[in-house]
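Okay, any thoughts on this one?
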Amino acid sequence: MSGIAIYEEDDLMRALLKEWLSEAGYPVREAAPGGVQRGGSEDLVIASVYMPKYAGAQLLREVQAAHPGTPLIAISGQFRSGLCATGTTAQMPGVEQVLAKPLTRGELLDAVRAIIGAPS
């Protein structure tokens, strides 16, 4: 397993996501705030989108271009809890799941395991 890349602008939220994933045994790479970095061989990308229909959609396109073929979890405070996969963001190619903020450790780890399995 090569790991998970996190794109999250908020320092505290990024640190929390990294902590949860690392403690569960997943290797994590924090992407630099404010820019999308060309990916390595990540198994999964988690991207926080502030405005899912506008700037967030552009961010997701940039992330997907940097990590072609890599599954993506989109998280946002703009999503409603329990959002199904019928919204604009959820229908974007590569978006495997959407999660509403605030989210729990369990919700995050369940979503990650459903996409890439348990850490090795």
